Amino acid sequence: MTWLAPALSIAGKDLRLELRTRDVVASVGLFVLLVVVTASFAFPTDGEGREGVAAGVLWMAFTFAALLGMSRSMAIEKEDACLEGLLTSPAPRESIFLGKLFANLSFTFVVELVILPVFIVLLRLSPSGGIPLLLLGTFLGTFGLVTIGTLFSAMAVNTRGREAILPLLVMPVSLPLMIAAVKVSEAAFVGSWSGSTTAWLLLMLAYDALFLLVAIATFPFVMEE
Amino acid sequence: MTVDTRTDVLGAPSAALVEDARSLERSRWRRPLGALTIALFAVLLPLALFWAPEDANQGPAQRIFYIHVPAAWIGFLAFFVVFVGSVLVLLKGSRRWDDIAASSAEIGTIFTTAVLITGPLWGRPVWGVYWTWDPRLTSFLMLWLIYLSYLVLRGYVPDPERRAKFSAVLGIVGFLDVPIVYLSTRWWRSEHPTQFVAEDGALPAEMLWVLLLGVATFSVFYAYLMSVRVRTTRLQEAADEELFS
């Protein structure tokens, strides 16, 4: 397990930094709340099919949250040549990826877990029986989004466009994952677990596993200096 | 007083670069492929417009199928070439494969754009709407977005070594995404005329011949565009290196 210890210490560094500054979670949390409130005014959140609208709004908010958090987390590494420091350290490149991935997942999950109850109250949903499914869908959807996003954010900070280009890279390839995540969240809000829900969960699992492997395999090339 | 900035500031191109540019003109494959493309289109268009039998239900609108379907297939082929080129860039660290992947991505994007334009032109008279969120349309739109983002990314990375690696990662991720995209949009909803050819006898022989000719035409067209684009990409890089090194 020579890769695990450096990965954990990199993730630990990010989490310690976050605990002291609360930069990412505070700014991203407020931003997501603003997205949810704005969307509640913009979309019909009453009547027939409102669970579907709610699921869509939820994942728009989650996508923004993940993108903003990941940009921030990689931009910090770019300051004062931290990235070069990581690269000259004996940590394997794969560990750098996994460390950043753990940290990004933690930030995003914290924001999501805080925003979910608020969201359910504001949009007057009652997913009493669907909460385990809601959490499972949130986990699988976020995992894939953040895996791809962590890989691409390492590329984005080294382009002319900096963080601005990250959404352009992440959103097209994560569209199928988003369809699945929205469908699962909708099923959770309605409170019904059907055969197609299982299929969507398996699709998300396949996406997450495939792109975790691809990201671990390709990240070292992105990080070469 | 006018100053020719090209020669005063940057210096004249080297003899080697000029020779390189001339060799594009003399390239052995470019002219025959170009001539063959024109000849094939000259045969394909009258056959598709007049010779192939008219579809009983769809009327003349169906004839766009001889352009639409070949463009879609060659678009897929182009993106497969991007994938292969991207894998080889990472494995061999060779910029030559990056030129191939980048050129194929550009051409594939043009072909899929043609698919996304011809599809709605057919959809309007046959389905009554320009666009529906059917799996094939949706997955093609997603594919098109992925390769547009590939081209945008390239524009944002000035360093050629880095550009090759970054876009290779996106080329690999984007192509591996295709089956998941297809599956997800199929489960989502469906109304496209699937499997025109696979159903036994569903497609009259004349229609099949014209379709196959269309695929041949677009394959040669793709090869022609590649032969030009890969060369010009290399020339452009050589010129950039000469100017900025």
Short description:
The complex is a heterodimer of chains A (225) and B (245). Chain A is built from 9 helices and no strands. Chain A is an all-alpha fold and 225 residues long.
Structural features:
heterodimer; A: 225 residues; mainly alpha; 9 helices; 81% helix; globular; B: 245 residues; 8 helices; 77% helix; 0% strand
What does this structure look like?
The complex is a heterodimer of chains A (225) and B (245). Chain A has 225 residues and is mostly helical. Chain A has 9 helices and no strands. In chain A, α3 (50-78) runs parallel beside α6 (131-156). The longest helix of chain A has 30 residues, at 93-122. The mean pLDDT of chain A is 88. With 245 residues, chain B is an all-alpha fold. In chain B, 77% of the residues lie in helices and 0% in strands. In chain B, α2 (15-26) runs antiparallel to α8, α4 runs antiparallel to α5 (95-127) and α4 runs parallel beside α8. The longest helix of chain B has 40 residues, at 205-244. The interface between A and B is medium-sized, with 33 and 29 residues.
Write the layout of secondary structure elements.
The complex is a heterodimer of chains A (225) and B (245).
Chain A: H1 4-21, H2 23-42, H3 50-78, H4 82-88, H5 93-122, H6 131-156, H7 166-173, H8 175-190, H9 195-222
Chain B: H1 5-8, H2 15-26, H3 30-51, H4 65-92, H5 95-127, H6 135-155, H7 160-188, H8 205-244
Helix pairs in contact in B: 2-8, 3-8, 4-5, 4-7, 4-8, 5-6, 5-7, 5-8, 6-7
Backbone structural class of chain B: mainly alpha
Number of helices of chain B: 8
Radius of gyration of chain A using CA atoms only:
18 Å
Gross geometry of chain A: globular
Give the terminus-to-terminus CA distance of chain A. Answer: 25 Å
Sketch the topology of chain B as an H/E string, one letter per element: HHHHHHHH
Spans where pLDDT lies below 50 across 5 or more residues of chain A: none
Distance N to C terminus of chain B: 30 Å
Regarding quaternary structure, what we see is heterodimer
Largest sheet of chain B: none
Low-confidence stretches of chain B: 195-200
Quantity of strands of chain A, as a count: 0
Shape of chain B: globular
Which structural category fits the helices and strands of chain A?
mainly alpha
- Integer-rounded radius of gyration of chain B: 21 Å
